[in-house]
Design goal:
By secondary structure, the chain is α+β, with helices and mostly antiparallel strands. The protein is built from ten helices and 14 strands. A seven-stranded mixed sheet has the order 8-9-10-11-12-14-13. The protein has a five-stranded mixed sheet with strand order 3-4-5-6-7, sandwiched between helices. It has a two-stranded parallel sheet with strand order 1-2. Strand 6 and strand 7 form a beta hairpin. The chain is elongated.
Amino acid sequence: TLGIIDHDKVDLTNLQRQIAHGTERIGMAKVESARQAIASVNPEIRVETHAMALDASNVASLVASYDVIADGSDNFATRYLLTDACFAARKPLVAAALAPFDGQLSTYKPYLGGGHPCYRCLFREAPPPDLAPRCETAGILGAVAGVVGTLQAVEILKELLGIGESLSGTLLMYDALDTRFQRIKLPKDPDCPTCGAGPASHGTTIRPATLADLAAVERIVGEAYDKYIARIGGKPGPLLDDYRKRIAEEAVWIASVEGTVAGIVVLLPKGDHLLLDNVAVAVAFQGKGIGTRLIDFAEDEGRRRGFDEIRLYTHQTMHENIVLYPRLGYEETGRGTQDGFARVFFRKRLG
């Protein structure tokens, strides 16, 4: 299945570099024009069209629906949006960009850790518009788009098939005027706001919460719910219990970074398994690996207590979680309604 997203319509100026379109389809939605072009080559390919702009309200669900994401956008806002979403969903991002006579290409898999930077590691902030004009402003030699687009297609196939050497950690530069390729090793930025360890790499501890942490715990959970409510228009589940009681039961653990509560996890023994009932990370510490660190801790704690299995659940609209948990070794066991909320259930055997 191929998914194509674009809010634009075919224009005459597109045709010298966007070969999916033709003069007879000027004025047609680009996604429909591309679908027709693909169908003319192989009508058995399933193409899902999304005639819309990519933005913060839809990027997570779209990214969660596909195995590899290809970015051919011409603006930094979209590139950063995809960078953050692909990191959260642990999806490979194969990104290509063009200038009038050159192009660049890389694959970003920062969720793999050291040696795997993200796009923000390379470009922390967008350059001024006059230094990086868009295609319609700068003009692109059409054949350059063909060369770089073909290379991008090869890298996408490599990621899907698991063959060859990934471009993750390497930037491939193409200079058309000098007919020259250059490979540049990309370092991972430890302070990257998307994938860097940042403060989490310095003095992070996980300990049982105390009543002194109650206000911070409730604030972090409240922030998480505000985020979900804004996305889905309602609560993904009941606001968890009485935290004063949970803390007294030693069910709440916190990740503390240099004395600041950065995240929480709630662990509930349930007979033959340990239930990871909630994990939440403070807004200021999101993207720093705190959530994964807490899940790893929960698994270690389950083993320490002698449990053979850990379970967790998420709301059915939390697409990034539904994709993330299997990548962390969790098996989906079912979907259904619990306490009036649509949930997806997972488990993991603790070896």
